[in-house]
Structures are given as C-alpha cells and as structure tokens.
Amino acid sequence: MLEVAQGRKEATWPSGLGLGLSACLIVKNEEQFLPECLASLRGIADEVVLVDTGSTDHTVEIAQAAGARVVHEEWRNDFSAARNRSLQEATGEWILVIDADERLQPGQAERLRQLLTEGQADAYQLLIVNFPDDEDARATSHRIGLFRNRREYRYEGLVHEQIGPSILKGGGKIVTCSLKLDHLGYDVKVRIAKGKESRNVGLIQRALKQDPGNPFMRYNLAQEHYTAGRFEEAVVQFRRCLWLAPADKVSYGSIAVYRMVDSLARLKRWEEALRLCDQYEGLMPDYTDLKFLDGVVALNAGDMQRALLSLLKAVGQGESPAEKYELVHAGSGSYKAWWYLGQVYERGGQDAKALAAYTGALAADVKYVPALRSWMETALRLASDALSRKSATGEDGAGAEAGAKAKAGSSIVAGAATVAYAQLQSVLGEKKDEVGLKGADAVYTALLNARGYDEALQVLGWKAWEGHEAERLHREGLVLLAAGRVEDALAVLEQALAAASAGAKASLGEGDTVRAAVVAGAEAGTIAEGGKAEVHAPGPEEQANAETPGILRDAALAAWTLGRRGAAVQYASQLAGWAAWADEAAALRAVLVRGQGEKAAQGLVGDSEGQGDGDGDGNADGMGVDVVLSNVTGLARASAAGLGDAGDPGAATGQEAVWNLIARCAFLGLGDLVDGLVAYLQERGVQESLIRRRLGEVFWALHLEELAVELFIQAALQGEHTDTSLQIIAMYARRKGFLREAEAVLRHVMESNPEDAVVVLRLAGVLEEQGKGDEALAVVREAQGRMPNSAILRSWMRSHGVASDDRDATAAT
Q1: C-alpha distance from residue 488 to each of 481, 551, 559 (Å)
Q2: 521-567, pLDDT tens digit by residue?
Q3: Which of 191, 294, 437, 801 could potentially form a cystine with 196 if both were Cys, beta carbons 3.0 to 4.6 Å apart?
Q4: Each residue of 63-114: pLDDT tens digit?
Q5: How far is residue 266's CA from residue 272's CA, in Å, rounded to a whole number?
Q6: DSSP label of 645
Q7: What DSSP letter does each residue of 498-520 carry, written as one string?
Q8: pLDDT tens digits, residue range 601-645?
Q9: 762-790 CB burial, b ≥16 within 10 A, e <16
Q10: For 656, how many CA atoms within 13 A lie in the half-sphere containing its CB?
C-alpha cells in the first residue's frame, strides 16, 4: 500500500482562507470517513497535515489525492505522541485539530476568519455535534480544537489526550466559541469493529497503574464502560471519579453525574438514581439535561407526580447552555421533554393532555419520530372514542367522510383515521415537507394499522419519500393488499421489485467504487492515473435494495390470494436467497406448495369463521370468553409446577420468523395462510398450548381482544403463559366484572414475580373493587417489605393516607 501511495503523483492542497490555518489529523484506516472530512476543509485550511499510524486500507491514497501532506508515524500506544507529531509538522500560525470522522459544518468561514483575525484568545473550545447510531441520542460536547501554533502547546496523556493544561501553563487564554464540528463516528458498532474500546481501556488502565488517583483517567474508564454497556462497572468508576474530583470543580463533572444517573436507571436502580438527582441538581440548576433525566427516571419508577413536575421544569428552562456544559443532549429541554410529558399523561389516562404534549414536541422538532408516532396513535384513539360515543348515541359522525366510511361498513377505527389525519395536517402545516423518512413511515404505519387506507396512501405522497421509490411502492402495495385490492397490489409490488433492482445496479456501478476519492480530489483534478480506490460506501439506491426481501414476501402473499400459485411459489423461492429471511421463506414456500391450510388455527378456538373482521370486537364461537373466564381459577391446578414464564420453543429464530409471517397474514385477513402456517408449526412439534398463546398475542395486537383472551386462557390452563399474557387475562376479567377470577390470576403472577410493583398495585385495585380494602393494604405493605425503595408503592400509600414504611436503602459508596 505504501509503495502504491509513494509511486503516485501527489496533489497540491488548494488555497484556503489565507489566514495561516493548518488542519491536523491523526488517522488509521479511515477510508470510510476521510473524504468528506477533507472536503469540508477545502477553501478553509491553508494546509492539511495528516499523520498516518499504519493504515492498511486506502486512507493514504485518498489523502494524497486530495493534496494533504501525509506523514508516517509508528504507533506507540500513545495518542499524545501522534498528536504532537502533527503539531510539529504544521507550518501555519493557527492549528485546527480535527478527526477523520468529523466535518467542519458549512457556512462558518466568516466566523472562523473573525476568530483568527481578532485573536481574542489563544485557544478555542469548539462545539462537537455528535451523531450516534441512535439519532435520538444526539448530543453536543466541547473540545479545544483551535489554537495558536506555539511550541509549548502540546498534548498530554496516553489516551483521551488533552492540550488544555499546557495552554494554561503557558499563560494562554481559552474561550468557548460557536464554531461547530459534526462527529459521525460515534456509532458503538464502529468503535467495536475498529477495536477502539479495547485499545482505550488498555491504555487507561496502564495510566491508572502509574497514577491511581487520577480522577480524569477514572472518568475516562467509566466512559468506556458506559459506552460499551457495562453499566455496573461504569457506576463504580463514576463514583470513584466524583469522590476524587467533585462535580462542580472539573469541566467533565456534569457528564459524570448525568451518565452515572443514566447507568443506574439502565440497571433499574431507580431510587439510587433519583437520590443522585436530588444531590446534584442544586450544584447545576441550569443543567436541564439532569432535570429531564430526573423526570424520565421518575416515570420509569412509577412516581408520576415527580415525573410531571421535573419534565414541566425541563420544558420551562429550555435546553442547557451549550457554552457552559461539556455535554448537552438535544431535546432535553424541548421535544424529548414534551414527548415524555405526553407519556406521563398517557399513563394517567389523560389522552387529550398527552396529545397536547406531543403537539409541543412536534412544534419543537417536526422530525422527532417518537412524537410523530405517539401523536398519531393518541389522535386515533381520541377520534375513535369520539366516534364510538356518537355512534352509540345516534349522533352524526365527526365529518362527512368519516360518516361515509361507517356507512360503507368500515370500522369506527377507519373513520377515526380520517379525522386524526386531518388534525395532523393542521398541526404540521407547512412543516410537513420537513418530516424525515422514518417519521413519515411511523405516521403511515399507524394509519395502516388503523385501516385508514386512503390516509396511508396520502402519506406516501409526502416529500420524505422522494428518492426512496422502492420503499414507497412497497408500502403502497401493502395498503392495496390490506384493502382487498389484490390485483392492483401485485402490480404495484412488481413495480417495487423493479425499482429496488434498478437501484441496486446503480449503486454497484464503477463510478461508485471511486466515490470517496472523487469527493476528496475531483475539484482539483488530483486522482492520479491508475489510482482508483476500491472504496465502496452504500448509497441510498443500495439501501433501497434492502427492501427487496419484504417486497418478495408480500408479492407471494398477493399472488397466492389471486390463485396464482406458481408465481407465489416463485416469489417465495427468490426470498430464500436472503440468508436473514431463509426461515420465513421456507415456511411460506412449504405452505404455498402444499396448498390451502387445514383450518388449524380455527380448530384451536372452535368454529371461528369471521374472526378476522378487524372491528376490534370479534370472538370465536368456541367455549366463549365468559365461560372460560369463569373457569380461570383452575390456573392454580393446571400450573402447579410454577407460574413463571414457560419454556418457549418458539423463541428459536426459525419459529420467530414463522410467527412474524403469521402476524402479517392475520393483519391482511389471509386466514387460509394463517391456518397453513399453524399446521406447519404443528408438524414441527410446536405444542398446541404454545400456539394458542402466540396466536393470542397476534390477535391482541389486532385488537381482537375477546378472541385473544380466550386463547390466552386456554393456553394458561394448559400451563403455557407469560406474565404479560396472565396480566392481560386479569385486566380483561376485571373489565368484564370477573373480579374474583382477576384476583386469582394476579395473585399467581405476583407469586412468580414478587418484586413487580405494578402487579402488586393491580392486585390491590382488584381487591379494593371487591370491598377488600384492608386486604389491599396488607398486600401493599407486604410488598413494601420486599421492595423498600419502590416509589410506586410509596405513592400508593400516600394516596391512601397511610404512613409509608420508609426504609430506603443507602446507596453504596
């Protein structure tokens, strides 16, 4: 690789701002990120110094083609040594330190010119906008990245190197500025693949052997554990760090506190997390991130009042001041806080207030996917409830179109889709074109599930789908299939296959293999002869091709429904070419080849003709749910071996794929294929009781509650259940007035999982409805003895005017 690079004609870096700015990088195998980093520096930096520590990919070639000056440095397990070598090679008056996975945000040339010419400081902290693999975790942090080129300014530390100490030691002034870098390499998977995490931990531990009392290294070790998901270890190291260096005395103190609280929350140690919030919020009252986290933890702990107050305070304060705190999470004082407020209201049964909170979230960020999804689902519930009430009282429906749907025989839910979608359009207004692809897909999915087919098709006309033709056509085909327009659906799905295929061919062309080098050097004409870098970065066309397996599956379903067995089998056979879909393809092909199902699913619940009518109140003509509920106390005898989650042979990957397929066919009303797939599972030895329970889950998701509960009960009487299925039985029985039976089920669930406070309160509620108030109090008191830190149980005691048995465990130090 080096010989190839050295044998090529090196390009010249084009002129920058002419202010003597040297951009310095240290790299190793960064061909994925480097081109766009270099592109962001064109017209800005007067030179680029790149220290390569042993790349084996095309990093060096890309850098030389762009005109960067490449320096080769042996890696010595010392980041400061590599950084300082780049500073040593720089000739400019100012230095910009940037990593390959960072980009200087566009439009900042004038701001940079002002900083360099006015010279109000010797060094500037830049704002780093981190874009992790989970876009909901977007955050802003600080780093000294722009400073004068002085010999005494040098980095210190083997890892997580710092230049601040040497600048301060030399009498330099450090100021925070608004210059921004986008950081794209924050993905945990990328870090693991490159071995960054294990490398960093080794270097930190080596540094701690030399200086065990170094709080910054303790902090760095905690950070590595946190990022890798080792939250127990992270808590220990964050504690040690904060003991050595109080949070208000070090710049990274707020990060240590926030991530320690977050680690405890991820470990479900709610009370410890809330106590830490109480301890530190006074030290950093304007750090909205911590107040927001307090609200989220309280919500998870079941303390709704504290959650409400904390989240209201968060939206009242707004975002944390980015110039003051080293880590600021986007949305903590705006769209995320509003969304969690909506969650608090939803859990309290206040859908109207929840919808208002979700509207607040969308006003702050129309691209926030959870808010779009929750807004749509809540609006659908409210509209459905309103239409149901008007239907029951004989009033006119909400809107002529909704009424027309009802007269045409569609469900009330479908009519609600018309009302809810009109409201959403009013909320989004002109911002609708700003909604991203994931957000548009969330709205589409909610409407499709509500059988709002016309509205789902309208969403597919949003701007977000431009450039994603295969995905759009696939979803259009699915709407048509669900609406019973099968001939049209198959035609559209075939168009989707063609679009995905065309996209794949476009993305694999020769031009794309040199994309990275072109980005870096095409403007200066610097790609040397014979210097094509075989760098392939998947583009949107190739991502569209990832849609192909799903299209093939749905095309097979459509073809089968039309009686075109040969085409259906052909599509299923093509689906088998995708390894991740092999199990689903095998099941689908087996059923299609064999022909019509054997009514296996229906046989489990008696004669269930019409079970898939989709109106939310279908029921099998089997035993009848009321009859089954009256026998539910037999659970104790049927499951004497214990009521914990039964062994689930369906958890195997292959069977899970079949269940996904069953759920899809059930939603589309393809009863024969559901029967065939159930028979397929039976032939492979899956127990009837397990099939009943899993079918119950499918029908529950489709809002066929009575049918689902009957299946759950029959499965439970055979010893097959989960805590979730049992609680669904209990709460359904409670709604139906079978309080004694609900009590029996909840007592058994509590015996299997005695530290689930939610189950305890549900049992207490059922007991109270039977007039057993003293028994309910005894149940909660006994549970509090097992869970002295439970905020949920304490809240219940307070609401009943009873002194709580307040025995909080002291956090370990």
Answers
A1: 8, 14, 11
A2: 333 333 232 333 333 333 333 344 688 999 999 999 999 999 998 99
A3: 191
A4: 999 999 999 999 988 999 999 999 999 999 999 999 999 999 999 999 999 9
A5: 12
A6: P
A7: HHHHHHHHHHTSHHHHTHHHHHH
A8: 556 655 433 333 333 333 333 345 555 566 555 554 333 222 223
A9: bbbbbbeeeebeeebbebbeebbeebbbb
A10: 6
Taking 90 as the threshold, does the pLDDT of residue 667 lie above it? no
CA atoms within 13 A on the CB side of 735: 9
Instruction: Let me know: does 111 contact 178? Beta carbons within 8 Å.
Output: yes
Helix H or strand E encompassing 147: strand 139-148
Pick from 516, 546, 545: which is nearest to 531 by CA? 516
- Which residues lie across from 129 on neighbouring strands? 140, 182
Q: Which residue has the tokens 């058994």?
A: 748
Of the candidates 160, 241, 246, the one whose C-alpha atom is nearest the C-alpha of residue 206 is 160
Structural contact between residues 53 and 74, judged by C-beta atoms closer than 8 angstroms: yes
Nearest alpha carbon to residue 693 among 630, 646, 653: 646
Residue where the block lists tokens 């911002």: 431
Buried b (16+ CB within 10 A) or exposed e, 368-389: bbbbbbbbbbbbbbbbbebbee
- The secondary element (H helix, E strand) that includes residue 47 is strand 47-52
Assess contact for 605 and 689: CB atoms under 8 A. no
Which has the closest alpha carbon to 553: 676, 699, 662, 459?
662
Six token digits for residue 301 = 């702990």
* The residue type at 169: K
Q: What is the pLDDT of residue 103?
A: 93
Contact (CB, 8 A) for 158 and 183: no
20 beta partners: none
